[in-house]
Amino acid sequence: MSPLVSGKIHVLPDDVSCRIAAGEVVERPASVVKELIDNSLDAASSLITIEVEEGGRRLIRVTDNGMGMNREDAQLACQRFATSKLQAEDDLFRLTTLGFRGEALPSIASVSRFSLKTVPSGSPIGTDIHSEGGIAWVVQDYAGPPGTKVEVQDLFFNTPGRQKFLKTVSTEFSKISYTIQQAATINPQIHFRLLHHNHKIFDYPAVSTFQNRLVQMYGPAFLKRFLPLTQTAGPFQLTGFAVSPHHARTSRIPQEIFVNGRPIKNTTISHAIHEGYKSFLPKGKHPQFIVCIWLDPQMLDINVHPTKREVRFSHPEMLH
Ligand code: ADP
Ligand code: MG
To answer: Would you say the CB of residue 68 lies under 6 angstroms from ligand 1?
Structure first.
């Protein structure tokens, strides 16, 4: 029989395809933290607490005081491609939220022991919805303060092949910490707290300006070493801080780029910054910067990378 007619193709069962798809979004504990923080930010929270055990391998718990969800929404939120943030494809170019794919919660749930407890503001009773590996969902009443608490235990317990790729507790923890630092940098009006095994790692109460948040994070010497940036050029608005060349160090930390409030990697912007510094930097010293670019979302494609780490600009030369 010809191999072309032997009927070798079959559709994967839902749980298998979901675990495979989760590979794109959930690479490691820090990716879970990023997705959960994005959701808390989108829910207009003013306090976000992240608790972690064993570098996030045993437990990640993100608690917010945002708008919460009613029961129907809580159940929908755990399904693939269920989102409150987008109606039609065109909305991608008008987005004001960090999320839009409706993939994070089901992906995370499919590779962990997952629970979501949520109470919408003004409601006396909330919902606890949990599962093991995204199957056999259980829904119960829950009493708690308004907001949402997501607990992710034993990440990759059912995908041992992926667990093998995790690094040491301290490496995974530092990636988590860095992810939260990025979110804290660009959201100074939000109170962020991080605890590891119940020890406070950092606590950044809400402040009124970006500059105050940077001082909170990097200490008062920050303002002696860094110069403020503000410029509008065509459709682009630039804000941020860049190290003055004679204070540059051998370290590349921080080198942060935010576009419309998202931390991203972008070679056009990095190249432009390095070009700008070029002749001013002593050999072996690197620029340090926190650069925020704001532009009309119509000029930006954010749907090019599963974790939204990369974006595409409609006019990269002009941006450079
Ligand atoms: P997305 O963020 O892309 O919409 P998610 O799977 O991350 O997809 O979340 C699905 C939906 O669940 C969101 O659109 C939002 O309506 C709701 N949701 C998730 N997390 C929270 C939260 N912390 N507070 C309130 N609503 C939430
Ligand atoms: Mg999301």
So the answer is: yes
- Going by pLDDT thresholds of 50, 70 and 90, the confidence category of residue 22 is confident
The rounded Å distance from CA 136 to ligand 2 centre is 22
- Determine the distance separating the centroid of ligand 1 and the alpha carbon of 282, expressed in angstroms: 47
pLDDT in tens, 99-118: 998 999 999 999 999 999 99
- Ligand nearest to C-alpha 102: 1
Indicate the Cα dihedral angle 152, 155, 158, 162, nearest 10°. Answer: 150
Please write the tens of the pLDDT for every residue from 120-157: 999 989 999 999 999 999 999 999 999 999 999 999 99
CA 76 / ligand 1 centre spacing (Å): 9
Stated pTM of the model: 0.94
Pairing of strands 47-53, 191-196: parallel
102 CA from centroid of ligand 1 (Å): 7
**Per-residue model confidence (pLDDT) at position 54:** 98
Whether 33 is in the pocket of ligand 1, judged by its Cβ within 6 Å, is: no
Helix/strand/coil (H, E, C) string of 262-286? EEECCHHHHHHHHHHHHHHCCCCCE
| CB 83 near ligand 1, within 6 Å | yes
CA distance linking residue 242 with residue 238, whole number of Å: 12
- pLDDT, residue 112, reads 97
The conformation of residue 293, written as its DSSP 8-state character, comes to E
Q: Which ligand is nearest to the CA of 148?
A: 1
Angle in degrees, CA 58, 61, 62, rounded to 5: 150
Which residue segments constitute the domains of the chain, with CATH numbers given? 14-204 (3.30.565.10), 220-319 (3.30.230.10)
